[in-house]
Design goal:
13-stranded antiparallel beta sheet; about 1450 residues; alpha+beta
C-alpha cells in the first residue's frame, strides 16, 4: 500500500463484535465502535494515526430487531485517550513497532491495534496466490493470499484468510487450565474452539503502488463443548474501513513523550483480574472489601443470603486488585472477630495473587495463623496462585524457612506446591529456565550425600510435580544402572524416582522412553522396580516395534509377577477407546497376539494391571480408570496398590485423581513371621499376618511400614510415610494431650450440653474458575469462562437433660451411676446450602463474551440453587432399661425449602453508567398466531399431601423458551426455567412427631410394655400381638429362663444331638459313594437331567464342632412345630417406628428371635394399626452345606410365601451348588412384571441372541412355581450353569473364568477346611448372652482406677527403661563369647523326628472335648463374683519391678547357657 508523504488520508471506520447463537431472532450481546481515522506519513517509515469523533455503543437484545445503544458516558471518559495520536512503523505493508504516550491505557491501545492491523498487507508482485505466516494481534498465524484485478474498474482485489487455530506464539491467556493436558488426538476430527478471519481489500493503483480505498474484515470464533450440528456459541467481529477523502492538513502529535508499546500483538490489560459476572468500579479497594466482608459476615449467620456466592466472588475480585498493605490492614482490623476471620481465610487462598501469597506466608511466620489454618490455606493457595517469578520466589523461601522445616507435614505441602508452581509457570512459558528448580536439585544432592531416604523422596516428588525435562539427569542418578548412588538406594526411593519420570514423559517421551525400557528389561532389578518402569514406559506411548520388543522379552521372563503385570496391562490396553491411546492400543494388539498363547492362563492372584476407558466422540467426552496391583509372593498383602481416574472433555485430558498405597516396610517385617511360609495356604497366611499386625510394636523402627500418596490433576498434593516411630509419637502425643485434661474436658462438655450449645458455621467455596481469554480483530478480548461458587452453612442448637442429675464434680461419678442415667438430647439443625453457577456462556455451560475493565457484553447462562432443610431431633438413652429412643419433631419451615433457577440472558454494561445495565433474555417473545407443538411458556403447580402425616408439598414449575422457532434442542434450553418446592402442614389433624425406639433386653422390653406401653390406657386397640406376647412372658416369669435347670437341659439335649448326628453322618457317606458310582454311567448328552446330589450336613466335619440342628431341621418342619418363634422364645431385640398424630398413631414393629437348639432365626414385622398383617422372615442354618429362608406376608403371614434354599453337593461327579426358589401366592404386581418381561423378551428377540451366545434353551416340564439353578465346577477355571424354570431348562456349559477357583474335585475348600464358622459364632454368642455386665461393674470406681493406672504406668515406664538398658548391656557382653560352631552342632543333634511324633500323637479331639465340656458359665460367675476392685488394688500395689527383674534374670541365664 502506498500513502503519499504530506497527505492526510481520512477513513470512516466501523467495528462491531456480537456474541450468541448463529441463528437470527435470538438474543445477542456485543459492542460497536464508530469513528473517523486520520492517517498520515510523518516520515518514510513512520506514520501517525488519530481517531476523530469516536462513538462507543453497547448491545443486549434480540438480533437484528433491537438497535445498538450509545454508551455516551463511556465515550466521554475515553475521548481524551482515543483522540491522542499514536505512531507506528510501516514499511512495504508490514507494521513494526507501535508508539504512544504512557497515559494511553492498554485497552485503548488494543483498539488502535485493531485499526492498524487492517493495514498489514504483505503483497508479492510475482505471485497471485501464496501462503505465509503473518504477525497480527493473535500472534503469527498461517495466512493465505489471493490477488485478482478487475479489468473494467482497474481495481485490485486482495483476499486474505487467516487460520486463527494454528498460530505460532499464539496470544491466549488460560486460567484454571494449567494442569490440563492438550489432547491433540482428541481434536483431529473435531475441535471445540475454532477461529478464522477473512480480509477483503479493494485497492486503486497509483504511481508508487496502490491505495487502500476500502477494507472489510470478518472474524469468527466458535465454541462448543459437544459435537453438535445444530450450532455453537460464536463471537463474530466485523470491521470496515472506507476512504472518505485526502487532506493536506497535518496531524499534530501529542506533547507527551512517545514510548514503545510493543507491536501488533495484543496486550493483556486488567481483564485478567476482572470476572465477567459483575462489573465493579473500584475507587477504594480497601473500603469496598470491608463493605463486602461486613455483608457476608452479617447476612450469613441465621440464614444464608441468596446472593452469598456472588458476594464471595466479589470479595475475591476486590482482593485481587488490593495491595499487600491493604490486605494486611483488613486482617489487622478483623483477625479477632471469628466470623470475619473465617471469610478472609477462605477467600485469601482463592485470590491467587503474589500479594495474597505473601500475606499468607508472613502472617503464619508471625504466628497469627494456626497450623491447621495455614495448611488448609496453602493446599489451595499454592495451586490456585498465579505462577510468576515473584510467587515462585515466595514459595521457595517458605520451603527453606526454619519454622516450616520444623513441621514435616507442612513442609511436605510447601515442597509439593513448589513443584506444582513451577509446572504452572512452564505451562504458560515452555522456555522456562531450569534454574527455577535449582533449590530442589541442590536439596536432592544434599540428601543423597547424607543418604537421607525421606528427604530424597520428598525432592523426587517435587521434581515429579514440576515435570521439567532438566530434572531427568538428577533423577537418573537415583536409578539403578544409571548412577553409582542408584544401586544403594532403597526400593522405595527407586520407585519414587521412576514415578517422577511420568510427568516428564508426557512432555518429552523420547527422553524417558529409553530409560524406562532399560529398567524394565533389566532382570537383575527388583520386580516392583521393573513393574513401575512398565507404567512409566506406557506413559511414553510406545510404538508397535517397541511393544514387540517388550513382548519378546516377556516370553522368556522368569518372574511371574512381572510377566503377569505386563501382560494384563497390554491386554487391557487393546480395548482402549481413548483418542490419545489409539496408537498404543494398536501396538498392544500386536504384543497381545504374541503373548496370549503362553501367558493367557496366568492367575489374577499375581501382580495385575487393569485399564478401562470409554470415549464418546459426539460429546467429545470420556473417562478412563486404571488400577495397578503389585503383589509379593511372600505374604498375603499386596506390595503396592495404585488407582487412577482420567477424564476427557472438549479436547483436553486430565488425571483427575490418583491414590497409591505401598506396604514395603510392612512386607519386610512380615517376612520374619510365619506368614512368609510359602507352603501355607492363604487363610493360614492371613491369620499369621493379622497376628503380626497386632504385635506392631515388635516391628523394626528403622524403616517405614507403609506409605500413601494422593494426586489431584496430575499433581501430588499429599503423602505420608507410616512407621513405628510415627505411630509411637502419635500415641504419645495423644496421650499427653488428653491425660491431664480428660476429666476437665468431660466436665466442660457435660455442663455445656446441659446449658445448651448454639453453633453457626458458613463455608464458602470457589469450586471452579476456568477461563480462556482470546484477542479479536476489533482489539477487544473474548472470554470463555466457567465459574462455580458455593456457600454452605449450618445452624445447630443442642441441649441435654440428665436424670438424675450428675454431681458437680464429674470425676466422682462411678460407672454404675452413669449406667443408671437417663440422658435426653434435643437438637435442632438447619443445614443450608446456596449454590450459584454463573457462566458467560450460551450452551452447555460454555462461556463467551466481552470482558474488560471498561465494558462488558456477554451472553450468560445462570443457574441458582437455594435449599433450606430444617430439622429438630430428640434423642433419649434410658440406659437402665436398655431403651434408645429417637424423635423427629416438627420444625419451622420457610416458604420454600428448595428453589432452582436457570436462565440465559444477554448482558451489556459499562463502568461509567452501571445503573443503566442492559439485560435481555435470549428467548424472544412468541409471536401471535403461532401454535408450537410444545408450549413456549409453561407455568404449572403440582401439590399433594401425605395421607397420614398431613404434610402438604407443592412443586411450582415455570418455563419460557424459544422452541417455537424450530426443531433445535438449543431453542428449548435458552430462556428462563425455575422450580420451587414448598412444604407445610395439611388440613387434617396435626402431625406431632416421628418416633424410633430400640429395645435391647427382652425382660426389660416386656417390663416396658406392661408398665408403660405407649397409649395403653387411652388406645388399647393399638396393642398388637407382639406386645401381648411380651406381656405374657413377663407374667409367666421369664426371668427364670436363665436358671441352672435350663442350662442342664440344653447340655443334655446337645449331647444327644451329637450322637444322632455321628450315626447319620456314616450312613450319608455310604449312600453318597454308591450314588456317585452309579452316576458315572449316565450319558454326557443328558447333563441337564442328572440329579443333584447334596452333601450330608456333617461332611468334612470329622474333628470340628457338630451342628446342633436335628436331621429333621428343614424350615417346613420347624414352621409346623412353631409358626412364630414369639410363641416359644422372647425377642432378642425389638424396634418400633411410629408416626404420632394428634388423634392416633401409626407405625410398625420389628422383633428378632433366635432359637439356638434349631439354629433358626426369625424377624417379624407387624403393623401397629392392623393386628393381623405381618411380614415374617425365617432363616435356618442346618449345616455348613445348606441354608434356607422363607418369607411370608399378609394376615398372620399366611397370604403369600416364598422359600429360598442354597446348598452344596455334587453334580455329574463335580462339586456344585444349587439355588432354589419356590413361591405360593405372589403379589399381583410381581405376576404382572413377569408377564410383561416375557413379552418384552420375545419382542426384543432375546431367545435368538441367547442361542448365539452359546446358551442352550430347551422346553421342559419342570416343577411349577419353582426355579432351580445349579452351578457346577468341572475344572478350576470353568463352570457349568443349569437353570430350570417351570416351562424351560437353560444351560451354559464350560463357561471360562478369569480366575482359578480354590475348590477341590471332591467339593472341599482347603483354605476353609479348618474353619468352623458356626461353632465360632455360637460360642461367641453364648458368652455374650450369659454375661451380666451390670453385675460386673456394680460400684466400680473408675476414678480410683484411673489414678492408680496413671501412677503405675509412670513408675512402670521408668523401671522398664532401666531394665532394658541392663538387658542391652548383657546381650552386648554375651555376643562376643558366642561359639557358632557349638550352637550348630547342638541344633544338628536335636531329635526333630521325635518332637514331631510327640506332636502327632497328641489327642486333639480329647483336648477339644475338654474345652467344650468346660462350664463357661460357672467360670464367668466366679469372675463376676470376685472383688474387681481388690484385684486392681493388688495389681497396683504389687512390686512390678521385682517381677520383671525375675523374668530378665531368667532370660539372662538362658542367654549364658546358649
Amino acid at each position: 500500500p502506498d500513502f503519499a508523504a504530506g497527505k492526510t488520508y481520512v477513513y470512516k471506520y466501523e467495528g462491531q463484535l456480537l456474541g450468541g447463537l448463529p441463528q437470527e431472532g435470538l438474543g445477542k450481546a456485543g459492542v460497536k465502535v464508530n469513528c473517523k481515522v486520520l492517517l498520515r506519513a510523518e516520515s518514510r517509515n513512520t506514520f501517525l494515526l488519530k481517531i476523530v469523533e469516536p462513538q462507543i455503543f453497547e448491545y443486549a437484545g434480540i438480533w437484528p430487531e433491537d438497535r445498538f445503544a450509545p454508551a455516551s458516558k463511556l465515550t466521554a471518559a475515553l475521548t481524551a485517550q482515543l483522540a491522542t495520536p499514536i505512531k507506528f512503523e510501516y514499511a512495504n505493508g508490514a507494521v513494526g513497532k507501535v508508539f504512544a504516550p504512557a497515559g494511553v491505557s492498554a485497552t485503548v491501545m488494543n483498539l488502535h491495534r485493531g485499526i492498524i492491523n487492517i493495514l498489514q498487507l504483505n503483497l508479492k508482485n510475482t505471485q497471485n496466490v501464496y501462503e505465509l505466516h503473518e504477525a497480527g494481534p493473535h500472534g503469527v498465524c498461517k495466512t493465505h493470499y489471493m490477488i485478482t484485478e478487475d479489468v473494467k474498474t482497474h481495481q485490485i482485489v486482495v483476499i486474505k484468510s487467516k487460520d486463527l487455530t494454528h498460530c505460532h506464539e499464539k496470544v491466549m491467556k488460560d486460567v484454571g487450565l494449567a494442569y490440563a493436558e492438550k489432547c491433540a488426538e482428541c481434536q483431529q476430527r473435531l475441535k471445540s474452539l475454532t477461529g478464522t478471519a477473512t480480509y477483503t481489500y479493494i485497492m486503486k493503483p497509483t504511481d508508487a503502488g496502490a491505495l487502500v480505498s476500502e477494507a472489510t474484515v470478518e472474524e469468527l470464533h466458535q465454541f462448543s463443548l459437544f459435537n453438535t450440528m445444530t450450532g455453537a456459541a460464536e463471537m463474530r467481529a466485523k470491521q470496515t474501513l472506507t476512504l472518505m477523502e485526502v487532506q493536506n492538513t497535518a496531524i499534530v502529535p501529542s506533547g507527551a513523550q512517545y514510548v514503545a508499546r510493543g507491536s501488533l500483538r495484543y496486550e493483556f490489560a486488567t481483564e485478567i483480574l476482572q470476572t465477567p459476572i459483575k462489573l465493579l468500579k473500584i475507587d477504594n479497594a480497601e473500603a469496598q472489601i470491608v463493605e463486602v466482608l461486613q455483608h457476608l459476615a452479617t447476612n450469613n449467620v441465621a440464614m444464608v443470603h441468596e446472593d452469598a456466592p456472588l458476594k464471595f466472588l466479589q470479595l475475591v475480585q476486590l482482593l485481587r486488585v488490593a495491595t499487600f498493605e491493604s490486605i494486611q490492614a483488613i486482617w489487622d482490623q478483623y483477625k479477632t472477630k471469628p466470623l470475619h476471620r473465617r471469610w478472609i481465610l477462605d477467600a485469601a487462598p482463592v485470590v491467587g495473587t503474589p500479594a495474597a501469597l505473601r500475606f499468607l506466608k508472613e502472617k503464619f511466620l508471625a504466628g497469627e495463623f494456626t497450623t491447621i489454618e495455614f495448611t488448609q490455606a496453602l493446599l489451595l493457595g499454592l495451586h490456585l496462585a498465579t505462577a510468576d517469578p515473584a510467587a515462585i520466589e515466595h514459595t521457595a523461601s517458605l520451603a527453606m524457612n526454619p519454622k516450616i522445616k520444623a513441621m514435616p507435614a507442612l513442609r511436605e505441602v510447601v515442597m509439593l506446591g513448589y513443584g506444582s508452581m513451577v509446572a504452572k509457570y512452564c505451562a504458560e512459558d515452555p522456555t522456562c529456565p531450569a534454574e527455577l528448580l535449582k533449590p530442589v536439585h541442590d536439596h536432592a544432592a544434599e540428601a543423597i550425600s547424607r543418604a537421607d531416604a525421606y528427604e530424597i523422596s520428598l525432592a523426587l516428588k517435587a521434581l515429579g510435580n514440576a515435570g521439567h525435562p532438566a530434572s531427568l539427569k538428577p533423577i537418573m542418578k537415583l536409578l539403578p544402572g544409571f548412577g553409582s548412588a542408584g544401586a544403594a538406594m532403597p526400593i522405595k526411593v527407586q520407585v519414587d524416582a521412576i514415578l517422577a519420570l511420568r510427568n516428564i514423559a508426557k512432555k518429552e517421551p523420547k527422553l524417558v522412553q529409553p530409560v524406562a525400557l532399560q529398567l524394565f528389561m533389566d532382570k537383575t532389578l527388583h520386580p516392583e522396580v521393573r513393574m513401575v518402569a512398565c507404567i512409566a514406559l506406557v506413559e511414553t506411548k510406545p510404538s508397535a516395534a517397541l511393544m514387540t520388543t517388550v513382548a519378546g522379552a516377556l516370553e522368556k521372563e522368569p518372574s511371574m509377577e512381572v510377566a503377569n503385570f505386563a501382560y494384563t496391562y497390554i491386554k487391557s490396553l487393546t480395548r482402549s477407546m481413548a483418542p490419545d491411546l489409539v496408537n498404543v492400543a494398536a501396538a498392544a494388539n500386536v504384543a497381545f497376539r504374541i503373548l496370549s498363547p503362553k501367558l493367557e492362563r496366568l492367575s489374577y492372584f499375581h501382580s495385575t494391571a487393569l485399564h478401562l476407558d470409554l470415549y464418546l466422540s459426539p460429546f467429545m467426552a470420556g473417562a478412563a480408570g486404571t488400577a495397578f496391583i503389585i503383589n509379593d509372593a511372600a505374604t498375603i498383602l499386596p506390595r503396592a496398590v495404585v488407582a487412577k481416574a482420567r477424564a476427557y472433555l472438549a479436547g483436553a485430558a486430565a488425571d483427575v485423581l490418583e491414590v497409591g498405597f505401598r506396604t514395603e516396610g510392612l512386607q519386610e517385617a512380615l517376612r520374619r513371621t510365619p506368614a512368609a511360609d510359602e507352603n501355607a495356604d492363604r487363610v493360614t497366611k492371613l491369620k499369621h499376618t493379622l497376628k503380626a499386625l497386632i504385635n506392631w510394636k515388635a516391628m523394626p523402627a528403622t524403616q517405614p511400614l507403609g506409605s500413601i500418596y494422593v494426586k489431584l490433576l496430575g499433581q501430588e498434593v499429599a503423602f505420608a510415610n507410616i512407621d513405628k516411630t510415627f505411630i509411637d509419637n502419635a500415641i504419645e502425643q495423644a496421650a499427653q494431650a488428653a491425660r491431664p485434661r480428660a476429666r476437665e474436658l468431660l466436665k466442660e462438655a457435660v455442663k455445656a450440653l446441659q446449658a445448651g450449645i448454639a453453633f453457626q458455621y458458613a463455608k464458602p467455596v470457589l469450586a471452579a474458575e476456568v477461563r480462556r481469554i482470546l484477542p479479536t480483530a476489533l482489539g477487544v478480548p473474548v472470554e470463555l469462562g466457567f465459574y462455580t461458587a458455593a456457600v454452605a452453612a449450618a445452624d445447630v442448637n443442642v441441649k441435654a437433660v440428665i436424670a438424675p442429675p450428675l454431681p458437680e464434680d464429674i470425676e466422682t461419678a462411678t460407672l454404675d451411676k452413669l449406667m443408671k442415667t437417663d440422658l435426653q438430647l434435643q437438637a435442632e439443625a438447619r443445614p443450608r446450602f446456596s449454590f450459584t453457577d454463573t457462566l458467560v456462556a450460551m450452551q452447555a455451560f460454555a462461556v463467551i463474551g466481552v470482558n474488560t475493565a471498561l465494558i462488558q457484553a456477554a451472553v450468560m447462562a445462570r443457574s441458582k440453587v437455594h435449599t433450606v432443610v430444617p430439622g429438630k431431633v430428640g434423642v433419649r438413652a434410658d440406659i437402665p432399661r436398655g431403651i434408645i429412643k429417637v424423635e423427629v419433631l416438627p420444625a419451622a419451615v420457610p416458604d420454600h425449602v428448595a428453589a432452582i433457577g436457570f436462565e440465559t440472558v444477554a448482558v451489556a454494561r459499562n463502568i461509567e453508567d452501571l445503573p443503566a445495565e442492559r439485560v435481555a433474555s435470549l428467548a424472544p417473545a412468541m409471536p401471535s398466531g403461532v401454535q408450537p407443538l410444545i408450549p413456549a411458556s409453561v407455568q404449572k403447580s403440582l401439590c399433594g399431601a401425605v395421607p397420614y402425616f398431613q404434610v402438604k408439598g407443592c412443586l411450582e414449575v415455570t418455563s419460557r423458551h424459544a422452541g417455537f422457532m424450530g426443531y433445535n434442542p438449543l431453542y428449548y434450553i435458552v430462556g428462563q426455567h425455575a422450580a420451587r418446592i414448598s412444604v407445610g402442614r395439611g388440613d387434617g389433624p396435626a402431625f406431632e412427631r416421628l418416633e424410633f425406639e430400640v429395645h435391647l433386653a427382652p425382660e426389660k422390653v416386656a417390663q416396658r410394655f406392661v408398665t408403660e406401653t405407649y397409649l395403653a390406657e387411652s388406645e388399647p386397640q393399638e396393642e398388637n400381638t407382639i406386645l401381648l406376647k411380651l406381656r405374657e412372658y413377663l407374667e409367666a416369669g421369664l426371668t427364670n429362663m436363665s436358671s441352672s435347670s435350663s442350662s442342664s437341659r440344653s447340655a443334655s439335649s446337645s449331647r444327644s444331638s451329637k450322637s444322632s448326628r455321628s450315626s447319620s453322618s456314616r450312613s450319608s457317606r455310604s449312600s453318597m459313594s454308591s450314588s456317585s458310582s452309579s452316576s458315572a454311567h449316565i450319558s454326557r448328552a443328558n447333563v441337564t437331567h442328572i440329579p443333584f446330589e447334596k452333601f450330608h450336613k456333617n461332611r468334612y466335619l470329622a474333628s470340628q464342632g457338630k451342628s446342633k440342628a436335628s436331621s429333621s431341621s428343614s424350615i417346613e418342619v420347624l414352621q409346623r412345630k412353631a409358626k412364630l418363634l414369639g410363641d416359644a422364645v422372647p425377642p432378642v431385640v425389638a424396634i418400633i417406628a411410629r408416626a404420632v398424630r394428634s388423634d392416633r398413631a401409626l407405625g410398625f414393629q420389628i422383633a428378632a428371635y433366635l432359637d439356638k437348639p434349631t439354629s433358626r432365626a426369625q424377624i417379624v414385622l407387624a403393623s401397629i394399626a392392623d393386628n393381623k398383617w405381618k411380614l415374617c422372615a425365617d432363616g435356618v442354618l442346618p449345616s455348613r452345606h445348606k441354608v434356607s429362608a422363607k418369607f411370608g406376608w399378609g394376615a398372620d403371614c399366611q397370604e403369600s410365601s416364598a422359600t429360598i434354599k442354597a446348598e452344596t453337593g455334587m453334580h455329574e461327579s463335580n462339586p456344585a451348588a444349587r439355588f432354589e426358589a419356590e413361591w405360593n401366592g405372589l403379589p399381583r404386581l410381581v405376576t404382572l412384571v413377569a408377564i410383561y418381561a416375557k413379552r418384552a423378551s420375545e419382542y426384543l428377540l432375546i431367545p435368538k441372541a441367547v442361542r448365539l451366545a452359546g446358551i442352550s434353551v430347551d422346553r421342559a416340564e419342570n416343577k411349577e412355581r419353582e426355579v432351580a439353578i445349579i452351578v457346577a465346577v468341572p475344572t478350576k477355571r470353568s463352570l457349568n450353569i443349569i437353570m430350570k424354570a417351570p416351562t424351560m431348562t437353560v444351560s451354559k456349559m464350560d463357561m471360562s473364568l478369569p480366575v482359578a477357583l480354590p475348590i477341590e474335585k471332591d467339593g472341599s475348600v482347603p483354605a476353609l477346611q479348618n474353619l468352623d464358622i458356626q461353632g465360632i459364632i455360637q460360642k461367641a454368642r453364648d458368652k455374650i448372652v450369659n454375661l451380666d455386665i451390670r453385675a460386673a461393674i456394680q460400684n466400680f470406681d473408675i476414678n480410683a482406677v484411673l489414678e492408680k493406672l496413671d501412677d503405675g504406668f509412670e513408675k512402670l515406664r521408668g523401671d522398664i527403661e532401666k531394665l532394658l538398658a541392663e538387658l542391652e548391656k548383657i546381650i552386648k557382653e554375651s555376643l562376643p563369647n558366642l561359639d557358632i560352631r557349638t550352637i550348630t552342632e547342638n541344633i544338628k543333634n536335636l531329635d526333630v523326628h521325635g518332637i514331631i511324633d510327640k506332636i502327632q500323637n497328641l489327642d486333639i479331639r480329647a483336648i477339644f472335648d475338654k474345652i467344650q465340656n468346660l462350664d463357661i458359665r460357672a467360670i464367668f460367675d466366679k469372675i463376676l463374683n470376685s472383688d474387681i476392685r481388690a484385684i486392681f488394688d493388688k495389681i497396683m500395689n504389687s512390686d512390678i519391678r521385682a517381677i520383671i527383674e525375675k523374668w530378665l534374670n531368667g532370660i539372662k541365664a538362658q542367654v549364658w547357657d546358649f
